[in-house]
Amino acid sequence: MGDKLHLAMGVMGNATSLLLYTVPILTFVRVVKMKSTEEFSCIPYIISLFNCLLYTWYGLPVVSYKWENFAVVSTNGIGILLEFSYIAIYFWYASAKNKKKAAMILTPGIVVICISIVISAFVFHDHHHRKIFIGSVGLLASAAMYGSPLVVMKQVIVTKSVEFMPFYLSLFSFLASSFWLAYGLVSHELFLAAPNLLGSPLGFLQLVIYFKYRKWGVVEEPKKWDLEKDGEKSKQLQPVINDSTNGISSRN
């Protein structure tokens, strides 16, 4: 029963994580069409990349025992490819100022991850200590990943608009966190369960904020027939205005 539950949580975690990683495709289709990153932030995608890199390494046989965490490797491996693609598109269309901000986060983060991988591979010589080390670093990255939407949530509260907080991103973030929390608890993997203790409630909070502000700040565009009506009225009023003007000038 335990093995079946473990497998089920792994499959559901994989499925929802893949959906979570693919949801931003719609956002970046918009970026490509508009040829602008608008008000979208690159920080969540950069931190997600860090998280995927660390947990892919965590699940590989170098750190974990054989392929006990294959589900973690498969989903985070795909996540690396997708998050890297999003970041590349962002850098292509972002302003020079935003590129600089993103690079200041991306570069040091990649350096820290490379150093962590080297230390785990060559300093520690057994799976147990490697998992503790990489799991601890991954825990920090996960906390940052799940905390990064707080920036977007603040923007939503200030602007009272959910335009830059896609619903499905929030939904699948909540579901993925919940399933990986269950997976970590069932498999007794503390470093998989712990970050999702933060991620699951934060994902739920995003949903609450989304539903609170989704109808705020929506401005209805005037209908075409209204514009035509107004145009006709203005034409009808124009001769009257002209006549009155002529009347004033004749009196003078």
Briefly characterize the structure.
By secondary structure, the protein is mainly α.
Features:
252 residues, mainly alpha, 81% helix, globular, disordered C terminus, membrane, transmembrane, SWEET, repeat, SWEET_rpt
What does this structure look like?
This protein has 252 residues and is mainly α. The chain is built from ten helices and no strands. The protein has helices at residues 2-22, 24-34, 43-59, 70-93, 96-122, 127-147, 149-159, 167-186, 190-213, 224-251. 33% of the residues are buried. Mean pLDDT is 79; it is low at 217-252.
Q: First CA to last CA: what distance? A: 100 Å
The proportion of strand residues reads under 5%
* Sheet/helix structural class: mainly alpha
Please provide the count of β strands.
0
Helix count equals 10
**Coarse shape:** globular
Region (Disordered): 226-252
Subcellular location: Cell membrane; Endomembrane system
Biased composition (Polar residues): 236-252
Organism: Quercus lobata (Valley oak)
